[in-house]
Design brief:
This protein is of the alpha/beta class and 486 residues long. It has three domains: 157 residues, no CATH class; 127 residues, no CATH class; 185 residues, Alpha-Beta Barrel (fumarase), CATH 3.20.130. The chain is 30% helix and 23% strand. It is built from 14 helices and 17 strands. A five-stranded mixed beta barrel has the order 12-13-14-15-17. A hairpin with an 8-residue loop joins strand 16 and strand 17. Helix 1 crosses helix 4. The longest helix has 20 residues.
């Protein structure tokens, strides 16, 4: 029950220290585009806290860190792993707040969805207490996919390796967020340290105030300040806040090696820590809604656009960096649907049910199932670069444009320019807010693929930003360049 409740709790409540960090970032942000993105994330966060719906459509894969006291008298008749996974399944299938099932089995083969988001990735340890300590975290694929690991030479510079890799990470991990770094041990230990580091309290400002007291704290501060000078900013739009904190854990290692791992936590940071002492399930306190400021987006700089009025000939009126409110009908497709579409194209077969992609906008999204009177559950964008390899085929089919999150690779940008198309981004980490603009949703094809199916959404005033315009100008290049300070 504690695990199930924790999975539910973190799906709609950000940690309070993270909210405070985001509020501070919003108040000091100087980039209009980045400030708007952070504002959307905070509005979404408050809506989720009030409505008890997921912060992000990617409700993550579950990580459990469990420390079992050797003196704890566990009255269980099954393996502890089975009990933990039953808690995850119960939490993710709660009918009052259904969460998305993202875990697939047979990862190198059939990749079949397990239908309840199990199994969790579980890390065990023990101590001499009579209690159980548990941390539950839900990590989205966008940030997990940006994890990095290397074994440096002992004389190599950790700072340089981290800075180089952060600069190459782009925006697919949905900044601003927290960077976890693990140093030492061996390859698997450093990765585990990086993941554990993400569960720490956001305290970089306290560290700045008292000053560093060792080499790790000096490295934390230096990385925090210099990463924010790169100019990546919220959602990669360019700005002064890319990370809210840099957390580091280290461990002794072999004299001949220096293992280093880096894992980011996205704008949908989700984790909670609790203890069980034999007196029943854990109780989680609701945060005070006063924690979130009242934020209104600057509507005077936003253009309303009816999708039905758009043609390939008039897309050129929109320029990289423009903020739009879209209304009309769009289609959805992610990795699996794109693969199917290309297979049908190569076989010269029409798509099922008469689905026609010509002159349509394709939204990269895998929504959460709806509850109660919802037309669709939280439906934020997924990382667009995964669809880059399908873009030429989609352009040849005749799509008008794409909606996703984060940057596109240069060959894709070249295709957008060649076909006079357009790439829009929605804010990652604002899934519930975005879903409020979806007035109707129906599955058109590949229903058996669940959230990977092709849907048709009817949207009204869906907030997006022009990321790549018809001339091939990318906000993910021009934005960070404008705000880069080092």
């Amino acid at each position: 029950d504690s695990i199930a409740d924790a999975c539910q709790y973190i799906s709609f409540y950000h940690p309070e220290d993270f909210v405070k960090g985001m509020v501070e970032a919003y108040e000091k942000e100087e980039s209009e585009a980045a400030k708007n993105a952070i504002g959307q994330i905070l509005i979404n966060s408050k809506m989720c806290a009030m409505g008890h719906r997921p912060l992000c459509q990617d409700t993550g894969s579950v990580n459990i860190f469990i420390k079992v006291g050797l003196k704890a008298d566990l009255d269980i008749s099954r393996d502890l792993e089975d009990v933990l996974n039953e808690g995850v399944a119960k939490g993710y299938t709660d009918p009052d707040n259904t969460l998305r099932y993202s875990v697939v089995s047979d990862p190198a083969g059939e990749r079949k969805n397990t239908k309840n988001n199990t199994p969790a990735v579980i890390h065990y340890s023990v101590d001499n207490s009579d209690k159980i300590e548990i941390t539950v975290a839900a990590k989205g694929g966008g940030s997990e996919n940006k994890s990095k690991f290397t074994v440096l030479n002992p004389s190599d510079d950790i700072y340089t390796w981290v800075m180089d890799n952060v600069a190459q990470m782009g925006a697919g991990w949905c900044p601003p967020g927290i960077l976890g770094i693990g140093i030492g041990g061996n390859p698997e230990k450093s990765m585990l340290l990086a993941k554990e580091a993400l569960m720490g309290h956001v305290d970089i400002h306290e560290l700045k105030e008292r000053g560093p007291q060792n080499a790790v704290e000096e490295l934390r501060l230096r990385l925090y300040e210099d990463i924010n000078k790169i100019g990546i900013g919220a959602q990669g739009l360019g700005g002064i806040t890319t990370v809210l904190d840099v957390k580091i854990l280290d461990y002794p290692c072999h004299a001949a090696s220096l293992p280093v791992a880096m894992i980011p936590n996205c704008a949908a940071t989700r984790h909670i820590h609790f203890e069980l002492d034999g007196n029943g399930a854990a109780k989680f306190n609701k945060p005070d809604l006063d924690l979130w400021p009242d934020i209104e987006l600057p509507m005077d700089t936003i253009k309303r656009v009816n999708i039905e009025d758009l043609t390939k000939e008039n897309l050129s009126q929109f320029k990289s960096g423009d903020t739009l409110l879209l209304s009309g009908k769009i289609l959805t497709a992610r990795d699996a649907a794109h693969k199917k579409i290309v297979e049908y194209k190569n076989a010269n077969k029409p798509l099922p049910n008469g689905v026609d992609l010509k002159d349509r906008f394709i939204y990269y999204v895998g929504p959460v199932d709806p509850v109660r009177d919802e037309k669709v559950g939280p439906a934020g964008p997924t990382t667009s670069t995964r669809m880059d390899k399908f873009t030429k085929d989609m352009m040849e089919i005749g799509i008008m444009g794409m909606i996703g999150k984060a940057e596109r690779k240069q060959p894709t940008i070249d295709l957008i320019k060649e076909y006079k198309s357009m790439y829009l981004i929605a804010t990652g980490g604002a899934a519930y807010l975005i879903s409020q603009s979806i007035k109707d949703a129906k599955v058109l094809a590949f229903e058996e693929m669940g959230m990977e199916a092709i849907y048709e959404f009817e949207v009204k005033d869906m907030p997006v930003t022009v990321a790549v315009d018809t001339e091939g100008t990318s906000i993910h290049t021009t934005g960070p360049a404008k705000w880069r300070a080092i």
